[in-house]
Amino acid sequence: MSGIDYDAVNQMNVGLIEEFRANGGELTGAFAGRPIVLLTIKGRKSGKERTTPLVYLPYDGRVFVFASKGGAPEDPDWYKNLVANPDVTVEVGTEKYAARAVVITGPERDELFDRQMAEAEQFRTYQTNTTRVIPVVELVRV
Questions:
Q1: Domain total of the chain
Q2: pLDDT of amino acid 99
Q3: Which residue in 2, 86, 131, 132 is a FRET match for 73, CA 20 to 30 A apart?
């Protein structure tokens, strides 16, 4: 998607990560009250660990994230990295744990994405902005 200033997004993410960790997972501003998870993944090319803040869906004791990239035509880098390196670190609130990323497909994916659209309307817009099926990933504690 052209028009996205990825440097600005990266700077915003650094601020969100700092605020999340300083406030036990609580954020202010546009993300106040939203379920946010910090996901740390090893880069598939660099091997460096990178942390990404993501809106997540807590459902039935499970944690799901969505590779929306705002409806861009391609998957986000964090998703490509976790497909290559599914062993990740998850931070929810003040809790930090190791997890394995599992891509959900088929009817279960569709049901979970429908739930996420009901919780956060912008995900409906993300899906209509792209022809790709936005991946759904479960972060399974190990």
A1: 1
A2: 98
A3: 86
CATH number of residue 35's parent domain = 2.30.110.10
Contact (CB, 8 A) for 98 and 86: no
CB 64 within 8 A of CB 56: yes
* 66 is a domain residue: yes
Residues 6+ apart with CB under 8 A from 64: 56, 57, 58, 104, 112, 116, 136, 137, 138, 139
CA distance 87 to 137: 12
pLDDT in tens, 82-136: 999 999 999 999 999 999 999 999 999 999 999 999 998 889 889 999 999 999 9
Residue 100 lies in a domain: yes
Read off the pLDDT of each residue in 76-82 and give the average, rounded to a whole number.
96
